[in-house]
Write the structure tokens for this entry.
Amino acid sequence: SWFVKRCGLAGARILRVPRPSDYAAQAAMYVPEDFPSPSDPRHGSAVAALVANAAMSLSGRTLVLTTTLRAIAIIAQVLRQQLAQRGSHLDVLAQGEWPKLRLMERFRAGAGPQGGCILVASASFWEGFDVPGDALQLVVIDKLPFPPPGDPLVEARTLQIEQSGGSAFKEYALAEAAVALKQGAGRLIRHESDRGVLVVCDSRLVRMGYGKRLIAALPPMRRLSGAEEFHAALEDLASVTRTSTTDQTFL
């Protein structure tokens, strides 16, 4: 409906194709509820701390998607500081420092047991970033991807909807966020055998009423109810990856 309504295709026939992956078995979603609010200045540092702990468990294999370019710099800087303090050699890649293709190649190359990396990115990396297999096992989204309020196109569409008596939030902002969130989450499972965890560092997804609509737009991943289940899921991913790597070495 998000697509056909915008294109004026009222009454169009729609074919919904089932997903080939078993998301309930292959993927899990975690929303840390005791997290700084998205408007809190501490939010970026909190995201970096969560990513540092999780990525060290997985030897990298982590993609961080931000809603603003400013957040990239904040999260990448804090990540590098925290990893250095812990003696970790994980490589932190940030959008803008290298061309997109080079970032993707470096990310894939760092998937082995001898090295790993974390990629912090925004904009075009929410879609079109394809890393199947064990190279990517954790996707972290910093905030719900609502349209930027200061954008002229967003303001024009908001005004048009409100002048016609509609709700700009429900009809436009929420729909845009649902599609963007679905695209970002889609970076995780790219193949029928992929496994991983999605983290959304925005408690509005579970606190606000509209969160149910956003969750409904996501693939049917199993929900992790707390930090303990989150860390257990990471350890399970790490153990399976170590076993797979060992098997390939003997082969």
The chain is about 45% helix and 10% strand. Residues 170 and 210 are 9 Å apart (CA to CA). The two ends are 49 Å apart (CA to CA).
